[in-house]
Amino acid sequence: MLIQNIWDMANQSIRIKIHHTGLVKSRGDANVIAEIKGKLNQTGYNLNDRLEDNLTGNFFGTLRYIPFDLALRKILSGGVYPSETGDKIGGISADFWGDKIEFWPYDTEGEIDALLHFDDTIIGIEVKYASGLSSDDDIDNSAKIDEQSIEEQSRNQLSRESRIVSRHGAGKTKILLFIANSDSCRTVYDDVLNRKIISNDVTLAYISWQSILVELEKLKLDNRYYQVIIDDLISLLKKKGFESFKDMNVQFDVDIDQTSFYSFGATDSLDFNIKMDSTIEGDLHYEFS
């Protein structure tokens, strides 16, 4: 009886904690994913990788609590480039998807951050936060004359991961999605495509964390519990520094023609006038207050 009372008190304490701290449970579960998979090393070794793995678990692990059609599908279909790939993702329909995502699955060519398995589509996900690609080389297949030419396999991280997606997605539409800061997304994307080192049957696409934040802010869910999760993810990404410049309000004396181009510059000097009763002498120092 005493043991049962202690257990009941403990459960009550847990319920109270969850009630008062909002997303403690879901954030905890997201961190648990990274810890279970051995991604949260207790030492200072490889800090950047641990930050990325933690962000992967926090974002995708938390979104698993919301039906795919209500959140992640809208985020990816609205922000993925090229837009044609975003449209393909928008065509995927799923409710519960917690059993459709693999975190850091093992493969002989490396460890992709996540694989999303849908009926007709597989999406590989590579997440970057504070670092670049983990491996690269000088291999460039862009000069190959025709399709019969033998292409060299690159050890570039996205190249390797495209082969992972290709092997796991037999018979499906295959997408490799690169998620990073907006400063690096397009540069990495263009470089990899221009070198033709992505598997022929895999489509490479990207979405920046800044775009993800924009799409999150568009979501207004009727279920208030789901909306709490979305609001917490918005706060998390803002804290990570992913809030980008959106617009500005400037008043002009002339009408702005949207078909014309304008150049804006700053003044190089500032004129000011100070009235004083004393005479200013050279080679002396004065303090104004």
Write the layout of secondary structure elements.
Layout: H1 2-21, H2 24-36, H3 47-63, H4 72-79, H5 83-90, E1 101-103, E2 106-107, E3 110-111, E4 114-117, E5 121-127, H6 157-168, E6 173-180, H7 182-194, E7 202-208, H8 209-218, H9 224-239
Parallel strand pairs: 5-6, 6-7
Antiparallel strand pairs: 1-4, 2-3, 4-5
Helix pairs in contact: 2-3, 4-5, 4-8, 8-9
Explain what the structure shows.
The chain has helices at 2-21, 24-36, 47-63, 72-79, 83-90, 157-168, 182-194, 209-218, 224-239, and strands at residues 101-103, 106-107, 110-111, 114-117, 121-127, 173-180, 202-208. By secondary structure, it is α/β, with parallel strands linked by helices. Strand 2 (106-107) and strand 3 (110-111) form a beta hairpin. The termini are far apart.
| Alpha-beta classification | alpha/beta
**What strand order characterises the main sheet?**
1-4-5-6-7
Overall average pLDDT: 81
How helix-rich are the residues, as a percent range? Answer: 40-55%
What are its keywords?
single chain; 289 residues; alpha/beta; 5-stranded mixed sheet; two-stranded antiparallel sheet; 9 helices; 7 strands
